[in-house]
Amino acid sequence: MRIDIDHLPDRNQRELERIVRAIFEEFEDAHKLATGDRKLARILKVILYGSFARGTWIYEPHTEKAYASDYDILVIVNHDDAAKDLYWLDLEERLSREFSILQSMRHPVSLIVHTLQEVNRNLTQGRFFFTDMMKDGIALYQSDDSELAAPRPKAPADALAMAEEYFEDWFPTAGEFYDSYLDDFARKRYKKAAFELHQAAERLYHTVLLTRTFYTPHSHNLEHLRNLARKLDRRLLHVWPNDDKTDRRRFGLLKDAYVKARYSKHYHISEEDLAWLGERVKDLSSAVQAVTADHIETLRQQAAAASE
Known about the structure:
Blueprint: H1 10-31, E1 43-49, H2 51-54, E2 59-60, E3 67-68, E4 71-77, H3 89-100, E5 109-115, H4 116-124, H5 128-136, E6 138-142, H6 156-186, H7 190-213, H8 222-229, H9 245-256, H10 260-263, H11 271-307
Parallel strand pairs: 4-5
Antiparallel strand pairs: 1-4, 1-6, 2-3
C-alpha cells in the first residue's frame, strides 16, 4: 500500500495531517478511562481511499450544485469494542464542526472504522468496497509495515448472484416502510411517519451500497450513508437539494427521526416539511432502482461472457 500523498496540494496535505491528529486525540480521550480488554485498544492503520487517493477529487463550491469531495478515511483498530460507533461520535462531531461551522477545512470527512479481522475477512470475500480501497488506498498512519490480506475477487457469476440477492432482500423493505409513511402521513401521525420515512431512506441506501459494493456500515446515520452512496453514481448526488438552510434543516429533521421521532417529546416536524421529505425519498427510490438495475445488468453481461 502506498504511503505518500505528494500528489495532493499542500493545503489538502495539511488538512489530512489535521484529520489524523484529531483521530488520535479523540481516540485517546474516548478510551482514557477504559477498563478490561478495552485498555488494550489501539489504532493500527489510518487509510485514505476514494477520490483523494485516486487523484480525482472535486472542489466546486461556487457552482450551481456546490460540491466538494469527501476525505474518505478508514480507521483500522485491534479490538471489537474500539470499533463501536459510540466511541467515534465526538470525532465525527469535531470534524463536521471544522468543515461546516468553523470552515477550517474545505472538504468534509467520511469516516468508517473496522477491526483488522473485519477488513481482512471482507478482502478475502472479494467485497468490491474493500478490494477497490486496497487498489487505491494510501496509509496515512500504520503502527507497523504489516500488509492486509490479499484481495480475492469474486467470480462474475458469484458477484451477480450476491448483487441480486442483496437487491431482492433490501429494496422491497424500503417500499414497505414508505407505504407505512404514507398511511401515517394521511392520518396526521407525523412523528411516526417521520421515523418510517427515515427507515425507507436508510434501507434504500443500504440497498444501493450492498448491491454495488457488497458493503454497508452498521449505521443508522443517514448523512453518513448518503455520503457513501453518492460517490457511486452521479444520479444519487443531487437527490437532496442543498441550496439553502431550509433544505439542510429538513434533511436534519429526517436524520434525527431515527431516535428523536420515537423518544423525544421535543421533536416536531410540520406537514409541509414531511411532505417535502417524502418526495425526496420517492426520488431516491427511483434513483436507487435505476442505479442498481444498471449495475446488475453489467454483472449479468460479465457473467455471461465468463461462461462462454
